[in-house]
Amino acid sequence: MGTVDYFASSMKQMHGNFLDAVKDLTEDQFYFRPLDKGNHIAFLFWHLVRTEDLVLNFLVQGKSPIWNEQGWDKKLGMDPRSQGTGMSDADAAALKITDIQEFLKYTRTVFESSEAYVKTLTEEKLAEARDYGMLGKQSLYNVIGGITIHHGIGHLGETWYIKGLLGLKGSPM
Questions:
Q1: Segments of the chain assigned E as strands
Q2: What tens digit of pLDDT does each residue of 138-163 get?
Q3: Spans of all domains in the chain
Q4: What is the pLDDT of residues 42-92, one digit of tens each?
Q5: Rounded Cα distance, 58 and 65, in Å
Q6: Residue 67, CB-side half-sphere exposure with 13 Å CA sphere
Q7: What is the DSSP letter of 59?
Q8: With 0-12 CB in 10 A as exposed, 13-18 as middle and 19+ as buried, what is 14?
Q9: Which of 12, 42, 49, 112 is least surrounded by CB atoms within 10 angstroms?
Q10: What CA–CA distance (Å, rounded) separates 144 from 20?
Q11: Is the domain defined by 3-165 classed in CATH 1.20.120.450?
């Protein structure tokens, strides 16, 4: 298995695990904050999807994020630019996804777009280093492997932990 296949498989698995982790949560579970200090699952989920959309579509491919291109910010009544990085704890705690079913449609669109894009890559393209603005100069290996997959899996682990605190099954393993 080459790197492209590994990234494609890892990304698809992470996406599936995240969708499984958030399905069937009640509103109280979705917005539960451990010790009233940590991030709630809704924030983690929103942040993961918005970051992946912003990084892969805007920074890497030079396209408008799906969030803006398809008007999801307006449909959901949420900020057109924010994706969580740099938000205060109070702002992160206050984040509300007004319509989870609509957000899931956006999520699936982003996940399908990301998975399709990764499959088009070559080892040579992954090795190219370039400046990604706020991410600095780095290879696409680092952007996809680190910022997209590793970052997402970190938030997935947080989500599983919060579910465990709620007495729910966390990791499927």
A1: 129-131, 137-139
A2: 999 999 999 999 999 999 999 999 99
A3: 3-165
A4: 999 999 999 999 999 999 999 999 999 999 999 999 988 888 888 899 999
A5: 5
A6: 23
A7: I
A8: buried
A9: 112
A10: 22
A11: yes
